[in-house]
Amino acid sequence: MLDAPTMLAVFSFNSLLLALVSVVVIRSIVTPMSAYLWTLSAVFSAMSTAGGLLSGATDLLLPTPIGNGLSLLATSVFWAGVRRFYGAHFPIVPASLIIAVGVGGPILSSVWWDDATAEIIIFSAAQGTLLVLLGLDLILIAARRSPGVWLASGATLTLTAVLIVHSLAACFRIGELSLVHFSGVQGGLLLARICGTTGLYLGVILMTIDQFHKRLTDKAYNDDLTELPNRRQFHERLETEWAHAVKCSTSFALLVIDLDDFKSINDTLGHAVGDTCLIHFARLARARLSTDDLIARTGGDEFCVILPNVDNERAEVIADLLVESIRQCPCPAQACDVQMTISVGIATWSSNVASATELQALADQALYLSKRRGRNDYTLSVPAGAPRRRSSMSNIGAQDHLRLEARSRAGRSKYRERTT
Predict the structure, then answer these.
(1) What's 217's DSSP letter?
(2) Are 129 and 160 in contact (CB under 8 A)?
(3) Rounded to an integer, what distance in angstroms lies between the CA atom of residue 164 and that of residue 200?
(4) Domain residue limits, the chain
(5) How far apart are the first and last CA of the chain?
(6) pLDDT band for position 189 (50/70/90)?
(7) CA 97, CA 132: separation in Å to the nearest integer?
(8) Greatest CA separation found in the chain?
(9) CATH 3.20.20.70 fits 231-418, yes or no
């Protein structure tokens, strides 16, 4: 059977190994501060165990309080790393008070009552409080319940259970908890502590990997400048809405939007102002759409909007809202406000439209008509003819394939014309 010093040495080595893993793995894919805090926590944990070994090898009073303080500090620093990881403020004052109680309480107890049981209970209560707060933060702050969150939370429960069993064993004199007389209870508690600590660090590593994966996904599916969905996400959503509309016969609308005279803004005011205008429009448009709608940046100054469960009339209302909103809200850039307008092409799902690609072609041609009519307007595209078989891409631009119904924002004129 292994003796206590060997088990504690294994625990100390395990903590240092976790520190090395934390600094090498986590630092490469997350903000450095969280990695540094978790690494420092593992170092403090190893030093605390070394303090326990020193306490058993000497008759000094000093190593035990230092070991307790380092153990409490390790938990607090780990907690601070978790809070930093999620961008939350660390409650340093409450944590400091808990550490003070966990270190000072056993010292006073040893001086006044010389009761080892009271020392164990006070320290376990302080350490358990920090672990419970850490576990609650892992569950409540995390927006995504990843496997790493559950593993780290389970590890905090394991470590808390170790403290409870340790306190009960001390109260009822179950097993000899010392470095000289090593019992099965002490061995089980040390093994559970090693497993809990390892699970805690593996949990945050998994949390970090999950966050890194999410960042990669965001970069693949979102535009860096406007933070809107990009062309890839737009096309996937368009195909999804198309399949749903065909299956359930529910309409949806597609809006294709261009910023009018955007090239002249870039040429005269500079690309920085042009970027500001793109961001301004993206924020303004997103604020006027519902959470079910999707607006994506699909080109330099081109945006597309998917409106689920929307018919022609409702699509026109939303297009009119966007046109008027951007016209009435100039973009604040540098020393002057930049007046902006947009042109919109609208197409809604119909059984006469053979594919999502054809629907987008309808919206594109409606957008072209809006620009030809003077910009700062929208045009509704309506498919012509009876239902057809699915068309190939080469047939989309046929002369007799579409008809366009243009409606001005004020409803002053309506006309139809064949595309040429």
Answers:
(1) H
(2) no
(3) 18
(4) 4-221, 231-418
(5) 90
(6) confident
(7) 15
(8) 99
(9) no
Residue bearing tokens 């939303």: 318
DSSP conformation letters of 138-196: HHHT-SS--HHHHHHHHHHHHHHHHHHHHHHHHHTT-S-BSSSSB-HHHHHHHHHHHHH
**Cα 330 from chain centroid (whole Å):** 32
User: For the chain, how big is the Rg over CA atoms in Å?
Assistant: 33
Going by C-alpha positions, the residue among 125, 137, 121, 63 that lies closest to residue 99 is 125
Q: Is the four-CA dihedral 304, 309, 315, 318 of positive or negative sign?
A: negative
Tokens of residue 245, six digits: 């509309």
pLDDT tens digits, 24-75: 665 555 566 888 888 888 888 878 876 665 555 555 444 678 888 899 999 9
Closest CA to 312 of 259, 362, 356: 362
Identify residue 311 by its one-letter amino acid code.
D
Give the model confidence (pLDDT) of 348-371 as tens digits: 998 888 899 999 999 999 999 999
pTM for the whole structure: 0.64
Q: What is the CATH number of domain 4-221?
A: 1.20.1070
